[in-house]
Amino acid sequence: MASINFNSLPVVISGFTPATYCLVGLGSLVLWYIVSAVYAWYRLRNFPAPSFIASFSHLWLARTTYSGKQYWVHRELHRKYGPLVRIGPNEIMTDEPEIIKKISSARSSYHRDAWYITGRFNPYHDNMFSLQDTASHSKAKSRTAAAYGGRDVPAVEPGIDDQVNTLVELIRRKYATPATGTGQRQPLLDLGPLSCYFTMDVITRLAFGHEFGYLKEETDLYRFLGGVRDLWPRMSTCADVPWIRNFLFSPAFLKLMGPKSTDKNGFGALMGY
């Protein structure tokens, strides 16, 4: 049987050109990807998938999420394949109530995925929604349970009533006033943005003790809502694709590009309020 002389390897390697190193590196990367793709496909091969690509790549999921039609696409997949559908290398989607109850139960053996970190309002700190550790999440939930009951939050109902009155007064004054004899028509009421302004004023009133004044100004203060609307397809894609999510929420990226409390618009402006 022929033997391999490993002593000659340094001589061979020392003769490599930069192009050879690039080819070896590229070949190693391709080999690693093929092996990892086959492994990813094999683990959940028994679950139906909308595309073979979805079995080993997040490309299908990213494209579907970014399209803004994710709900309708997923609904059709469940109608076609049933309650369990594979939509990524490690992602299984379900619409079965019993399965969802089991996953979400208080003593569930399922753990919260890193997907939840994208729910951070402040990207540098966890909130109750983004906590992944089950014990920490349960502790935070128990500590805030009383607040959701409303008994420990002063003037919950009066605070909400004030915003309701502001909304009603705005509609009466600007949109429901009878037309005058000048022939000028009253502006049409676009309930979409107005309901968002109402929601933001209610939330900020309960959270900070006074509303920000979205309804009073009838505008998107700090461009917060517009930023969310414009970024939503990208935010959803970043949440669903693990490697993008891990990169954007890495300490290095946040230090260079993350929002700051000194920002004049967007999330940073609200962080510094």
UniProtKB/TrEMBL annotation:
Keyword Metal-binding on entry: yes
Pfam families: p450 (PF00067)
GO molecular function, one term: monooxygenase activity
Cofactor (UniProt): heme
Gene3D superfamilies, alphabetized: Cytochrome P450 (1.10.630.10)
Keywords, alphabetical: Heme, Iron, Membrane, Metal-binding, Monooxygenase, Oxidoreductase, Transmembrane, Transmembrane helix
Signal sequence interval, chain numbering: none
InterPro entries attached to this UniProt entry: Cyt_P450, Cyt_P450_sf, Cytochrome_P450_monoxygenase
Membrane-spanning residues: 18-42
Family the UniProt entry places it in: Belongs to the cytochrome P450 family.
Name by which UniProt lists this protein: Cytochrome P450 monooxygenase mpaDE
Protein species of origin: Colletotrichum higginsianum
Organism taxonomic ancestry: Eukaryota, Fungi, Dikarya, Ascomycota, Pezizomycotina
